[in-house]
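[Automated response] Your request has been received and processed.

Submitted sequence:
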Amino acid sequence: MSKKTFQRLAAAVSVGLMLVAVATPSQATHSWAGYHWARTTPEFTLKLGDNLTTADWKAHLAQSSSDWNSGNSPVLTAVVGGTSNKRCSMVAGTTQVCNGRYGNNGWLGLASINITGGVHITQGSAKMNDTYFNSATYNNPNEREHVMCQEVAHTFGLDHQSTDGSSQNSCMDYFSNTGANAGSTLSTKPNRHDFDELSLIYSHLDSTSTINQIAAEVVAMSVGPAAANRDVGDEPESWGQLVRQSANGRSSVYERHNGDGSKNVTHVYWTHEATARCPGCDHRYDR
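Generated structure:
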């Protein structure tokens, strides 16, 4: 092989490696189906309505908000007074965050978003089920922080980095901070890849905004009977149809289409007990 041929081959290999390096982040996506808040500015602040009833949950929400604000992300958060209650009724342009004893229904955390125009988030809610968090298995600060961080971030349009139980050291994985791992702080905060993914999701601008009730049509959607129909309750019957579930059964996604043309999409984080009974079942009905 001549020196010139070797140099050309080396250059081609170098370019190929650079292309792979550039392509990898966009391919290793954990966007939630392209869902995103419509906005007209590169950076925006999403209000997180604090409807939490205990000091420890309030502290976990404050910590999650701070963590998500720390990564040079286009999505900033601000914790504000809640306008809902245990039911966690959605409010246009915001994410409402709640806790309560929602019952022995198998779910640990619930994140719901309302979608219009195919991909635009108009409102969200995140719920923590104290029926389980007050039990010995789940009642530790690391598991609470992991679930709070994840459920809130689903309403940004983020999906999971992993659902197999391994730790990516991101709250967007399904590592469990319980049992022997109860003292571990792994997976309780976002990591660099989460912030990179948010930058990809929000790399474009929209012609309208669904943030903080700016758009008049979004404000109109937040009142009246139609708005109530867009809410997602803690009752499994309100979630709609099962459209996706992880192999181990801990993560499920449901969709419900509404009469006004919008749809509700809900991420459900099931307990160990629910998935142990039947990993492949729709856990709403496997009891």
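Summary generated for your ticket: Residues 3-28, 214-228 have pLDDT under 50 and may be disordered. The chain has one domain: 35-277.
If you did not submit this request, please reply to this message.
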